[in-house]
Predict the 3D structure of the following.
Amino acid sequence: MSENTTITLEVARYRPGVDERPTMQLYEVPLRDDWVVLDALNYIKDEVDGTLSYRWSCRMGVCGSCGMMVNGVPKLTCSAFLRDLAPGPIRVEALQHFPIERDLVTVLDDFIDKLESVTPWIVRDEPEPPPEDGEYKQTPAELATFKQYSMCINCMLCYSACPVYGQEPEFIGPAALALAQRYNLDSRDEGNDLRAMVIGSQNGVWDCTFVNECSEVCPKHVDPAGAIQQLKLVSAVEWFENLPGVPSRRKK
Amino acid sequence: MVETISHDVVVVGGGGAGLRAVIAMAEARPDLDIAMVSKVYPMRSHTVSAEGGAAAVIKDNDSFEDHIHDTITGSDWMADQDAVETFVREAPNEMIRLEHWGCPWNREPDGSVAVRPFGGMKIERTWYAADKTGFHMLHTLFQTSLKLAQVTRYDEWFGTSLLVENGRCQGVTAIELRTGQVRAILAKAVIVTTGGAGRIFPFTTNAAIKTGDGMAMAYRAGVPLKDMEFVQYHPTGLPGTGILITEAARAEGGILVNSEGDRYLRHYDLGDPIDVDDPRHPQLRTMELGPRDKLSQCFMREEEKGHVFEGEHGTYVHLDVRHLGEAQIEAKIPFVRELALNYVGIDPVHEPIPVRPVVHYMMGGIDTDIEAATELPGLYAAGECACVSINGANRLGSNSLTELLVFGRRAGESATRWAEEHPEIDTAALERQAQAEQERIATNFINKLDGTERIATIRRELNETLEAGAGVFRTEESLQASVDKVAELKERAKNVGLDDHSLSFNTELTAALELEFMLDAAEAVAGAALARRESRGAHQRSDHPDRDDEQYLKHSLSYRTDDRPRIEQRDVVITNWPPAERTYGPGT
């Protein structure tokens, strides 16, 4: 591909307190074979228009900062190659379903609250033993049950893809529910009962209509939809067992 | 008037060291009122990118003595031996606590934590979570910190300066990015955990946020930066992007091969290669498991001989892991495969990975003692931004993740004690300082309409001069050129003009402030490197090729002045491990 070739980016611009809604601005950038959308944005910022705002950091798909809508699909812009989107134009917008702070920068407050709401830490009935007593034992098989759900980078692409979250912002949503399941399945954890209230609540797993969009867009193959289906099963069994007269067969 | 907020302790930096400090403070004094200021949400911090693992003695075949010996020899005797001893002895408990908090460490069949070999280590002692160890450690620490009600997080607040009054550090100023307003956060003690400064170089594994902010803030407050001349080039980065291919790839058996098909490390006193199918491969402290400084220098020698591949993004050699097979690659280094596929279009199962040395880590940083205290009362530092020093002239892979736990905790404990003993705050004077900081930012950037220099131009020239002058091999002449160029760029940076004069989430403003931080960090790197006329670890002077313990078994301390930095020396702490020749190969 020639160095002289260019490609057009249509970038959503939004200034808080000034613009009523986002407007599109066109930029022409070099179409380089090894450039991702983030490289194009950095080119614009450095050389063309310093007023464009967006988040980025690691540029290797692990910090979760640079998620945006690329041609209407939620993507990590550090992994979306221009060559795969050529000849363009390429439409770049802030992740949908979130309030926009400015340009391509979304407001994370709701997402952070939801992460916190699922008690995403190890809960034990007894206090943490002294480190001198050594590690908790966990077999490779026990690790494998939850490992996939521990791979979430909090990039929020799944919330942007989720039609339920788009309609009902109270829905706890894919990443937070997958995180709940990550701790529920961890053999070191005893906090399932704490999380059950949130998971089974009216904004929990039962909101999910299993369209699977979250798992489709997940760049780390966490499969939040799968986690939610597992949680639904557990939640249903718990509901049944809590009916009067049904004997409990739960461990704890 | 600048809005003022008060807490008992404020932590600047939301990565691994900062989060560990926060947890330590909450445990030491549950009623302590703690603030954490971070320019990105904590889970975005650069700890997230660490891959290979974290070292701590846990297995019966290992010993503190061995970990200490490896670390000191790896440092080329520049590490303070009392600090190394403390670090090594406290490392296992720190790692077990992280296990208790849920870190998904790889395991042995019996359920105990698994360890892997690593470069420069004579025993396998590196704990790992596949090859996303930093990611899992950071998320474990962040999620564990969420249960602490006494912590107030200021996410996406950009620290700009330390507030110092009456000889005590008593807070920071920060820009709340959402509103663009400068705020003063007053505290009885301040902990800086802002990480490294790799972005001063053009080709680096470091994330965009690694611009030396905390180092520069401390430097401006009169605290010396220690051993800044020691910059680690990791031997295996992807050409072009600089994305890290973890040392774990070699620890699991990967080999380095030049354009002649030769395992070229054999020529550089790192032992002899053995066949990849030999069960003894890879041998510890040998060949591909040599230390990073030496492996990066070997690449440069091969480049001089012309035994490297030429590519669009410069020269490279091959890191070959094909003999591990798909199952092992997926089990032990899946991220290596993901990164190679995504960014260079190569599947390591079938093809060798192109790699070249890449700037990775600053051994130097804010001068601290073993308690993480700086010479400015009330100011503490930990993690990559600090220099205790346990890394000396070359850090061993997998020591830094453990370092941020051990010294992050120590910083938290020290700051807690200090805050309890020093409750008084000079509020009025601090508010005046914060007001002046707000005016500086408004005058120099937001309200300035006649600036002619572009941030990206100065940053590019800074990158170029450091790579040319202060790279893997350096000379008096190359370093003098870098020192002069950095001074010139500092002058020109005063004339930076922004396109963006608005307040809300103005990332051009933060880029301008980061550029100023980078220039200060770069000034210390080049200045200290010029002053050290010997070769040791990662600091290789072609004009002074030998180590000179007589004159230079000393830390360098860079103090900020209105002109070039003043460089002073301080003796390295030697206890039980007298300086000797640094050797690698089987049995060393």
About this structure: Residues 6-106 of chain A form a domain with the Ubiquitin-like (UB roll) fold (CATH 3.10.20.30). Chain A has two domains: 6-106, 109-241. Strands of chain A lie at 6-13, 23-30, 67-70, 73-76, 90-93, 100-102, 105-106.
